[in-house]
Design goal:
Layout (H helix, E strand, L loop, with lengths): L13 E7 L2 E6 L3 E6 H7 L11 E4 L3 E10 L9 E3 L3 E4 L2 H9 L6 E11 L2 H5 L12 H5 L6 H8 L15
Protein name: UPF0301 protein BSL82_16820
Organism: Tardibacter chloracetimidivorans
Family: Belongs to the UPF0301 (AlgH) family.
Length: 172
């Protein structure tokens, strides 16, 4: 979903994990954190990187930026894993990172620090304003598209050319 005037959400791509009467929570998947790679993170956590590729870690959102999350395919589940619909699984415990390092983890995954969160009704209200665009979950956008291309690819998958978007709403 694109942002809402908050620079932290400018061209944001957020994989929603929860959106119900109690509030909403999602993981940002469209921005890499400069200077933090998976191997560096694993080393800080005293986990041998093993065979895990040294990929960038994503900025999951402004809430609890020290907390890690792994968004992954549904071919793996561990302690605390939560299946999100039929699309992906969210795990925030170290066992998934250890499994990835050992080559025994999910087939497709990404690692993020922090999350985006909204109180009850807050996201529903924001969605009625200019700046948001919701698309169906597309696993290939999450796992197979380069981070810097996810925003434009999500629009393109919905049949929209983002080059034709304007920041100024019209009036009828």
């Amino acid at each position: 979903m694109p942002g809402i005037g908050d620079p932290r959400f400018e061209r944001a791509v957020i994989a929603m994990c929860v959106h119900d009467e109690g509030g909403a929570m999602g993981i940002g998947v469209g921005t890499e954190i400069e200077g933090i790679s998976l191997h560096g993170l694993l080393t800080q956590l005293e986990i041998d990187p093993g065979i895990a590729p040294d990929v960038p870690v994503l900025a999951g959102g402004p809430v609890e930026p020290q907390r890690g999350f792994v968004l992954h395919s549904q071919d793996w589940a561990g302690e605390g894993s939560v299946q999100i619909g039929n699309s992906y699984t969210l795990t925030s415990t170290l066992d998934v990172l250890k499994a990835i390092a050992e080559g025994k983890g999910p087939g497709r995954w990404l690692v993020a620090l922090g999350y985006a969160g909204w109180e009850a009704g807050q996201l529903d209200e924001e969605l009625t304003h200019h700046g948001w665009f919701a698309t169906p979950v597309l696993s290939d956008v999450l796992f197979d598209t380069a981070v810097e291309n996810r925003w434009a690819t999500a629009f393109a998958a919905a049949g929209i050319d983002p080059a034709l978007l304007t920041a100024t709403p019209g009036r009828a």
